[in-house]
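Objective 1b: paired records.
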Amino acid sequence: PVGSLLLTMFATRILFSARSVPGRQWGGKYRKVFKYTQARKANTAKQLKIMAQNQVYLSTPYLSDAQDYCHVKQAQEPSSS
């Protein structure tokens, strides 16, 4: 019983040790290789397009300077209620 237990433990250690990466998974000498698939490539392109569109929206204000001036002027007027 003890011999079979040791053999089982040894076999388990040998079989499962190759599947795990010691330490940090994505960095270092024995790192896991990152697979760059077509789906990841498409997702990255999609995210970059979204970021570019957000930059366009943020670079142009919603109100022009003239509209903003009138808006502030109306907000400062006392309401007659």
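Objective 1b, second protein:
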Amino acid sequence: EGRGTSNRARQAAFLHASRAHARVFCAKDLVCEAKEGKERNQGTQVARQKMDRSHSELVKDWKAWLGAWVESEFESVLPSTSASAVESTSETLLGTNWETDDKSVGVAPRRLSAGPHTHLVVLVNGLLGNSSNWECFISNLEADGRTGHFLLHPSQTNNMFGTYEGIDVCGQRLVEEIQEVVAENPGLQHISLVGHSMGGLLARWAVGKLYDAKKRTVAGLQPAHFMTLATPHLGCSGESAQPNHVPFIAWTPEPLGKYLEKAAVPFAGLFLKRTGEHFFLKDGLPLEQAVQNVDAGPLLFRMCHDCTEAPYLSALRAFHTRTCYANVSGDYLVAWANSAICHPSVLKTLEGLQKTEGGCRFIVSDDGLAAATDRCLQLDDELVSPSRTESLMLRNLNSMPWRRVHVDFKETVVPLLAHNHIQVTRRWLNWEGEEFVKEVVKHILELEESWKVSSGDST
């Protein structure tokens, strides 16, 4: 019995020792694999598992993964790559310096002269963007000598995967950011906002929360100009017949197109998370019930009303001018009617869409300066169906004047990148859109001069 017990003890000890040796050898194998550059695969898996982390943590993961990839892929070219060199190379490939602090990401706020700065211009990026997306806009505004009173502030708070957290969450960050900027610059008197894509929706949400109905001010400042570039004002729909349809779904041939229509909503919720639900109006009550109970309806539907939570429409109406820039073709994300805040049948009635004589080659139609202040789009009653929330959203947004500028990038090398050409999101890729950006800068200055003349303001 004693010998049997001893044998069992030795067997157990040997088993434990074997497992320990196995763990050691596994660890050695992992070290070898890491040295061979295979750790980048692990880095990718880790990054995918941490999609729910905060933006600053995701930035660290992605920089680590990309650094490992650079080191492994270019080992033969850079045999003695230092950690700082790898980090520098990864940042170059990413196109911007990603810091761990969200507020330091991208482009810093700009004062275009020594002062005084009386006009705050907030630039709001879209989905998966950051403040560096506005570099082309800012450099062109800097090149003009009439912008010395501007304080340009490219929003710093909604970056990359942080934009997945919902329009209200991102909008609240923007609200707090604007309040902070205003508090730090007591000489400010006026405020304007420019939003690209989802950034236009964030701007609409923020001004609704910052609006003081008694004083008719936004963040304590006089609202001046509100501008959007390729913004899905009506949200998104998988149905190709709707003004807020997603173009790339409509472009997909049958039968795949029908499957994409059905899969659009669940896929948007899966990949874009809460922001995807907001885009497709799947938060809150079902659409058919939202008509009777606005306060419980989807967020984008509420943002087309003055509801209990915020006077969204009144805040938008308080701006001296409103301008929307819309892609006629080539925008695979936002339909022409959606960004132009029009019914598709209204756009069909436009005569020919001839290019502006002597103007920017990408602008095919411009309602003109007066439309930004004193011309409302009249929708026929038959186009506004009480059973369609999109129709009601259109009617409410058109209860105030909008200047509509229709843009077509079909002459560019890659016209299907129109959604980013309109902002020049990345200069190395969307460089052809800079001609259009210069025209937008002219529009901003024209609106500013017109406003000063009408209000008798010399600042």
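Residues 20-56, 73-104 have pLDDT under 50 and may be disordered. The two ends are 102 Å apart (CA to CA).
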